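Sharing a chain and its predicted structure for anyone who wants a worked example. Both blocks are below, sequence first, tokens second.
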Amino acid sequence: MSINAFKAIATFTKAVELGSIRKAAIAQGVSPQAASQGIAQLEQHLGVRLLHRTTRSLALTDEGQHFLDSTQPALAALERALNRAKEAKDEIAGPLRIVGPQSSFAHILTPLLVEFCAKYPDIQPDVQLSDGIGNWVLERADVGFRIGASPDEGVIARRLFPVQLIICAAPSYLDRHGTPRSLDALSQHRCSVFRHPATGQVIPWYVNMGGEIVHRQVPPALFTNNTELELEAVLSGQVIGQLANLSAAAHIRAGRLVPLLLPHLCDHIGVHIYYGSRQALPKRVRAFIDLAISRLLDTGDIVLSAKELAAAQDARRVKRKRQ
């Protein structure tokens, strides 16, 4: 049933209830002419006359009485359904469907979920993490996260923070193999190379060359499609890696990793949050989006300042001089 047909039926029943098409029009916020035309179009569609009407009164025809008796229960049920939908929209309860990347993201999402569910215990998160680029609409997600370029048109996206791609190594690696002083010197080192989990494609290192982002091939001592495994390989001193701040920031601050070749640090991509509509968001979805933005927008927990990176690099030099 079309919206216009529903409106016409509702106008008809309201006119019978109030005894006047004019009063029905006022009750529904339309003009008397529009209300009268709607009922006339309904009668034309049904092929029967529903009302006897004059300028001062109206009365049901036999067909109108039968139609009214048939439609009133259905309209009442529909009205209840509409009210339930409106109430659910304003309720912070029920399922919350979230999609996002699998690589390096679970430890960022988990604190948000813990905080959100502690505040709203009637929420049931349904979280699907995958590094494949899926169809947001078919996945029926309420909120999505994405690492990389902004999501396609058709969704509303907001950049939360930059992804810093940092060349780094463990102190134990540098003690054994020395510190590369240039990108060319990496050819003499053991480096890790990442395969995209969804495509299997080998991803080159992205480096900043005087403000231009270029691809850099490095000698692969390790291939992996798992960011956690790559991080552990770098932490254990087996390889030099180009790691994202999402997984490396805490280790750099703790001195477990040393940032290298800082002029070539790359931050051309970001983490985005995205969703379908500003107007029709259920309250639970709006509340989660607001929390995510408040906690992650340019967060200092994940984004390393230039001063922090330089200090971490200098700390290594100072330590070496003292030895």
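Comments welcome. The CA atoms of residues 76 and 289 lie 35 Å apart.
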